[in-house]
Amino acid sequence: MATGTSHRAAPEHTHPDDVPVLTALAALADPVRVQLVRELAASEDWSRSCGTFDVPVGKAAKSHHFAVLRAAGLVEQRDEGPRRVNRLRREEFDARFPGLLELVLRGD
Amino acid sequence: MATGTSHRAAPEHTHPDDVPVLTALAALADPVRVQLVRELAASEDWSRSCGTFDVPVGKAAKSHHFAVLRAAGLVEQRDEGPRRVNRLRREEFDARFPGLLELVLRGD
DNA sequence: GCGAGTGTTCGATGAAAACCATACAGTCAC
DNA sequence: GTGACTGTATGGTTTTCATCGAACACTCGC
C-alpha cells in the first residue's frame, strides 16, 4: 500500500456548487450548527478537531451535525491520526452563496 | 367610528430589524414558503391576495405559512375587503439581511 | 338577513429531525 | 497486543413542524 495509509473511510464531501439553496439554508437554520460554524470561523484552518467544539449536545449528535455541514458544503474534514480536523470552506461557499456566510457570522 | 372601518384584527407584523438571523433562515428553509416569496417577488405590491398563490397545500397550511413569513419580516399584509393582500418587504429585509433575499430569488 | 367568498383557528395526525446511550471501528502510545 | 482516545453507526425516544379537515369570523352583494 502507498504511504499516507488510512484504513478509515474518508468523509464524503459535497462541493458548495452542488448544494441547493434550500439545503444550505436548512443547514444554517439550526442553533447548534451555527455555533459550530462561528467557532470554526474564529479558528485557523485544520486547527480544530470535532471534539474541541463546545456545544451542548452529546458527541453522537455533534457528529451528525458535522455530517450535515459537510453535505451543505460548509465544512471540509480531513483525518489526522485519531482525530478529524475541520476547515470552513469560506471562499467556495461564499462564491456559491454570496453574503450568506457573512450574514451568519455577523450574528444578531 | 372613523372611516376605514374594519372589525377584523389587523395581522401582527414584525419588522425585519427585530428578526433574529435564525428565524429568517428557518422561514426561508421551506420549499412552500420559498415559492410564495418568489411568486410575490414577481408581482406588484398589494396585487396578490393569499388565495391567488398556487402552492400545493390547503388554505389552512397556506395561512400558516403566511404567518411565518410575516413573523420573519418578509411579508406585509393589509386587509382589502374580504381579502388580505400582500407585499414583499424587499428593501427593509434587504437592509437587515443583505443578499439573502436575492439569493433565494435567484434560485438554484 | 342570507349566501358566497376569503382567510384564520383549532385539534389531530404523520413525517422529519434532534437527541441520547450504547456499541463499534479506527489510531496511537506503551 | 492492550488500553486510552476520537469519531461514527445504530436503535429508540422525544420534539418539532407541516399538513389536513372542520369550525369559525369577517366582508360584500343581493
Characterization of the model:
The structure is a homodimer of 108-residue chains. Chain A is of the alpha+beta class and 108 residues long. The first copy, chain A, has a single domain (16-106), classed as Orthogonal Bundle (Arc Repressor Mutant, subunit A). Chain A contains 5 helices and 3 strands; from the N terminus they run ααβαββαα. The first copy, chain A, has helices at residues 21-28, 31-41, 59-71, 90-96, 100-106; strands at 48-49, 75-80, 83-88. In chain A, strands 1-3-2 form a 3-stranded antiparallel β-sheet. In chain A, a hairpin with a 2-residue loop joins strand 2 and strand 3 (83-88). The longest helix of chain A has 13 residues, at 59-71. Chains A and B meet through helix 1 and helix 5 of A and helix 1 and helix 5 of B.
Tell me which CATH architecture of chain A applies here.
Answer: Orthogonal Bundle
By oligomeric state, this entry counts as homodimer
Radius of gyration of chain A: 14 Å
Number of distinct beta strands of chain A: 3
Tell me which protein chains meet in the greatest interface and how many residues each side has.
A-B, 20 and 20 residues
Topology:
The structure is a homodimer of 108-residue chains.
Chain A: H1 21-28, H2 31-41, E1 48-49, H3 59-71, E2 75-80, E3 83-88, H4 90-96, H5 100-106
Antiparallel strand pairs in A: 1-3, 2-3
The first copy, chain A, binds a DNA duplex (30 and 30 nucleotides) through residues 6-9, 30, 32, 49-51, 57-67, 79, 81-84.
